[in-house]
Amino acid sequence: MTPFAIAGIQMRISASRENISAMAHRLDILMARFPWVQMVMFSELAPFGPLPGHAQGLPGPAEEAFREMAVKHRIWLLPGSLFEDAGDRIYNTASVIDPAGTVVGRYRKMFPFQPYENHVAPGGEFLVFDVPEIGRFGVSICYDMWFPETSRTLISMGAEVILHPTMTDTIDRDVELSIARATAVTNQCYFFDINGVGDGGVGSSIIVGPSGYIIHQAGGGEEMIPVEINLGRVRRERAVGIRSLGQPLKSFRDRPVEFPAYQRTAASEAYLQSLGPLTKPHRGSRAGLAGEQPEPAEGDFDQRLPSQVVGFAGE
Predict the structure, then answer these.
(1) How far apart are CA 281 and CA 313, in angstroms?
(2) What's the CA gap between 4 and 192, in Å, rounded?
(3) 98 phi and psi, to 5 degrees?
(4) Residue pair 73/98 in contact by the 8 Å Cβ criterion
(5) Closest Cα partner for 131 from 95, 165, 98?
(6) Which of 51, 131, 130, 63 has the alpha carbon at shortest distance from 103?
(7) CA 156, 160, 166: angle at the middle one, nearest 5?
(8) Domain assignment of residue 106, given as a range
(9) The domain spanning residue 83 has which CATH number?
(10) What confidence tier does 315 reach under pLDDT thresholds 50, 70, 90?
């Protein structure tokens, strides 16, 4: 089976200026050091950082700059994602560019990190694409992976590698590392989760193979992570099982039941509806706070929070 080399670039992202020039510089260095790399990916929102004020239409000048980079280095390029101005909506969109500079697909993040990203609209279409003579790749973004249905759908569409740019700067990055490993092994695929640093995340990018083994886990600084993969490994594991043991994809295919949770009926969603609206958490207690605080309105969700401090984190 033909090997294929993918590099993730974990770089410092600024929210106060564009990062496209810095991305081009990192890419030049990467390709000078590792000229055998055939595909490169950056982190979520790498071009401009996490501020939607930089949103632009697609196709647009940023995407054109990335097309030129792909042609210059003759690589497949996934330049993270950027906020796409679609007129009446803002999406978080990742473009996939081939070595000829053609945009072969765009993926709009399906699960913006609600309720913290209320300004971002959800996408509604999955993206897989083929690299000739290599295999099929799927794309997801950051919070998408917290919903295993997104990855399972990409795999059901034939993906053997999931490219997953992320921008996590919060205390739950360790949880995401576990999810990344679980996603790879339950779907018997390669999983590339590339995070940024600075305004773009806390680093700790991770690449996992189809057996669940961690190929590389980055630290908290800038890194270039070139990895050669072999999709023959994916196909073999899907044929005979993970480490010649469990065969989760075949077992899912041959499942004896349909899952009531996916029927979206009043009965199947009764408990989920009882959880209340999707809103930012309130303080779980007034303990230690000077002065009077207003009482919550009748039926307000924070009345249902436990009387203790509730910790939370975002993506």
Answers:
(1) 10
(2) 14
(3) -90, 175
(4) no
(5) 98
(6) 63
(7) 95
(8) 4-253
(9) 3.60.110.10
(10) low
